[in-house]
Amino acid sequence: MATEVRVPTLGESVTEATVATWFKQPGDAVAVDEMLCELETDKVTVEVPSPVAGKLSEIVAAEGDTVGVDALLAQIEEGAGGSTAPAKAEAPKAEAAPAPAAASKDVENAPSANKLMAENNLSNVQGTGKDGRVMKGDVLNALSNNSAPAPAAAPRAPTSADDAPREERVKMTRLRQTIAKRLKDSQNTAAMLTTYNEVDMTEVMALRSEYKDLFLQKHGVKLGFMSFFTKACVHALREVPEVNAEIDGTDVVYKNYVHMGIAAGTPTGLVVPVIRDADGMGFADIEKAIGVMGAKARDGKLSMAEMQGGTFTISNGGVYGSLMSSPILNPPQSGILGMHKIQDRPMAIGGEVVIRPMMYLALSYDHRIVDGKGAVTFLVRVKEALEDPRRLLMDL
């Protein structure tokens, strides 16, 4: 009985992959869940395990072929025996390169990764595969980062004998490692600048106070500040579309839609769920979507698809008491708005000093695609919309 091996789901917005390496050849015996091949996409490296035990009877997609989701990769003759001995021609090649330190049986590195590490005398490569498995892409990234000789990382400062017993060493979670890498990559790649402004929250707070009970009664959700800021950003992005765009090589990709990322802190780290097509939503739909995503974030139930595809991000450090900050871009996005604490401050209005609830706003942007004029214009439009919410109704 023949069993088909097909390309698995590759993730949101990923429709094709390249067959990188076959670890088995026709006639080889395979066990259930034994790795057959590796697929490479522009985002991740995907392992394809054997769904059954048997003999690999045919390889349909050769190394280097481009395949789509659910495309046929190979056929396995279920239950049939096969040759497990390596070909004689491979023996000298296997002896020529020293094998890297063996991984544990439970977490075995990808064979192609082992081969690359051996050829380049690499070790201690950080794996991003399942359970920390080192993939081919991890080794390629390490080689790229080490293309020029670099000094060894500075050793940690010694700890005194009195302090050592009072320290605790905990391995970073996979999420925290990913956050650290992405934020550092953002600083290394983008020409990031931040521009600041302040907004008088009097009108928004008055409007919210007046209608919050009626809003809750009709829509079953509380009226918060995030829907006002989301609507204000959507309004401003229409006028300054480069803030909603991204760079792809030498091209600028303009997005004629807004998938709004809403940064959320969780016990395990920062996540950014995405409200898709926020530009077509009303206040109630935005508040409901934020509520659903926020609950999933707190419970650790967000899927990868729900955190991908954002075109712009809002980060609210004000809920933690932050008065001013410079948010870091969420690549490949070109803009992120930082909200902050609402604080009563004396303001000069009409020749008189009055107390107003003020908030500092910060827009970090990629100066490679967004000029200073565009960034300042965007932030001013957000400020105007919040200080006079009627402008949102009239598209002014």
Account of the 3D structure:
The protein has helices at residues 91-96, 111-119, 136-145, 174-189, 202-219, 225-239, 283-299, 372-387, 390-394, and strands at residues 2-6, 16-22, 29-30, 35-40, 45-49, 54-59, 66-68, 72-78, 192-200, 246-248, 251-253, 260-262, 264-266, 269-271, 274-275, 312-316, 335-339, 343-349, 352-366. The protein has 396 residues and is an alpha+beta fold. Strand 4 (35-40) and strand 5 (45-49) form a beta hairpin. The model is unreliable at 84-105 (pLDDT under 50).
Layout of strands and helices, then pairs:
Blueprint: E1 2-6, E2 16-22, E3 29-30, E4 35-40, E5 45-49, E6 54-59, E7 66-68, E8 72-78, H1 91-96, H2 111-119, H3 136-145, H4 174-189, E9 192-200, H5 202-219, H6 225-239, E10 246-248, E11 251-253, E12 260-262, E13 264-266, E14 269-271, E15 274-275, H7 283-299, E16 312-316, E17 335-339, E18 343-349, E19 352-366, H8 372-387, H9 390-394
Parallel strand pairs: 12-16, 16-17
Antiparallel strand pairs: 1-8, 2-4, 2-7, 3-6, 4-5, 6-8, 9-19, 10-11, 12-15, 13-14, 17-19, 18-19
